[in-house]
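Changelog-adjacent note: as of this version, every example in the card shows the full chain rather than a window. The one below runs 862 residues end to end.
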Amino acid sequence: MDSKKFFLRLFLFGLFAVAGASATFAQSAGSIEGVIKDPSGAVVVNAPVEISNPVSGFHRETVSGDDGSFRFTNVPFNPYHLVIRVTGFAPYAQDVEVRSTVPMSVQISLKIGTAATSVIVEAGGADLVENDPTFHTDVDKGLFEKVPLESQSSSLSSLVTLTTPGVVADSNGLFHGLGEHADNSFSYDGQPITDQQSKIFSNQIPAESIQSIEVISGAPPAEFGDKTSVIIKVTTRSGLGQTRPTGGVKASYGSFGAVSGGFDLAVGGRKWGNFIAGSGLNTSRFLDPPEFQAIHDRGNEENLFDRVDYQVSGVDTIHVNLGYSRSWFQTPNTIDNLNIGINDPITGNPLSPADQRSLIKTFNIAPVWTRLISPTTLFTLGGFVRKDQFGYVPSRNVFADGTGTIPGGSSATLNQQRKLTNAGVRSDVSYVKGIHNIKAGVTFEHTFLTENFNFGITDPAFNDPASPTFDPTLAPFDLTRGGTLFPFRGHTDIKQVAFFIQDTISKGNWAFNLGFRGDVYRGIVHDTQPEPRVGIAYNFKKTSTVLRVAYSRIQATPFNENLILASVGASNPVITGVVGGAGSQPPIRAGFRNQFNAGFQQAFGKFLVVDADYFWKYTRNGYDFSAFANTPVFFPIAWHNSKLDGVSVRVSLPNYHGLTAFAVLAHVRSRYFFPQVGGLGDTVSSGSAFRIDHDQAFNQTTHLQYQPRPKLPWIAMNWRYDSGLVASNGNLADFPTALGFLDADQQAAIELFCGANVATLTNPLTPAICAGQTSIGAKLVRIPLPGKGDVDHNPTRVTSRNLFDTSVGDDNVFGKDHYKWSLRFTVVNLTNKKTLYNFLSTFSGTHFVTPRTYTAEVGFHF
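Full-length structure tokens:
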């Protein structure tokens, strides 16, 4: 039997075996509906109904119809406080919990009373805690729309970094989740996206399209697989039920000539809805550059998102997400890339600065059909196709891309065209009755990878025939000696099937997550893994305390970006000659993890809640990234194993007289172990653990926002502290080693010093200058003293930093009820702190944090 027939039969078997089973990533929102009646049984018309979650900031209002019914759709999974206030009746309050796509139905009978009737309608301490075995963070649009975000082009990544404990900011919209490089996945209304979403790999959906996010950073339930360190469930905005069109237009201008604009429009009726959002950005600082000043760093981005909902009948609904994004950007230059004083090795003419550029196009479509089989059972069938197309263009004069023996710099030119297409089908049945909330599921994904690039040596010293390290296999591709470009052509496809079944059981004060998952991975390598999951929580209701523990077995799949190069390149002598290391490493296999979590949640009255989680993860085949000859072609590698542990804490202050605040704190130890077992590069056969550049001793973000009244101006502020990522380069073990390795530009960039001598571009430090000096180091990188470096216990790190961002705005400048004008002024890095994200990282190199930037925005809303 061929592989296509095998996977077709396997998929159909799984589909029928669970009677229409569930998606790998379940839908992220449900609905609340009900009928309001008076004591006689007559329906109550035009009764105002509101639901809210004080922790996430979610709040929505509606009124009952002519038949007394009301309905809230697109409600993220969470507990909510429902309140009804009708003149002549006693206030009514009820707690409802949305944990499934099955509609939550409530029947409400109001009592005759007056406004003075004693009924508790406000949320209390019990509403601040969730009896859930999985540690997660909920953030709604009402909260995050006022958070100052550093990155306009990767706003979703910035939002996750600021609001989630254990998530550390890296450059260009990348973040490290709980000690790992990019072991993160996104779910857009149930569509799984496990490929990297930083802005050098792909494009993100516009922030205007997001209704709420739930970030799972604890034990993942069985419905989630693949990359689970951090799972970002995004619920997009909908126009369903929006009988009066709402929307807005906004535009902004700021530092680095940044111009942006965007719009959103929601329109619909009781049975249909359409939401569309678009945005655009043009700036002279698109990526985080390797110098404090932005050199050759222009870029632009355009996004379009459209969501269509249509209720075909009382039991059938169709939902379609459409998206297209395009980004174009230059590769930022260092001082060395300006090629000052360097001549073309062929013509002898002065070289112009390096001028590499990239273009990324992303297309996505995801239709979903749901059918309400019974009041307790909902069936879902959906599909998705997402395509990322990445193109990298070298300088017009290829020798400008790398000449001279620059430590850590490029000695090559390269162009690349890479495509990633992910298509799949998912189906789900959700069943909710009594103490049980059951899901069972299957998903089939087919990912097509194409990697084409051309490579040539541009540095005459890189493979000098007179050198004892001369490699004759590289000689035909040495452009300085009449060679031609080396072509690399790769194509493969990856098939994945995932099945799961789980039951969330609520019994008294207990909550249990019991599940089992199976993953079948058929790509360059074949791997299969059974994965039991279990979580337990107990709610001490009298003290508003929840205790939880969980265990997870997880199969992690390799990164798709340049996976072909990493897995089969080791068999090509040209590739191994450029990258170095042994050429006998096997293709990258799936990783297998055991994960343990334990935590608690504690509410203090109705104004404060603390949520904490301890995690311990042991992974066989720990993933990271490396670079091909210091070019922007990044590929995955695998180490023998990794051991990660840490503590994540979130403190939330729900709205109290206009003041809202939260703080997220974390300590993460990220230890990887030799040898390297997959991907290109050196194979180390001995050695102990080392701290990888995902390790973070301590980081925290504190956010405050204050708005005295809804129609008055507001102010918001972030305080971010990071202890500093590891500078993962073996040539920085201690000060003498770094002194002999760093060139003038790199020394000046980190402000290397010894005694009263500080490195500059024209006067770098040398061993002779620093001989006998006791005051040695660097301002921006903490380099160990001579002989004190240890890759596990005392690695070189970027120095710690405190950064402050602030925004002030007015959402209704003229105080109108329908048509509103808004103003907003944002300052990022208020104190203009000069600091680094990373330095000479094996993956991404060197990048500076954004300097002080100003942005002024005006908007019109209706």
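Structural remarks: The radius of gyration is 28 Å.
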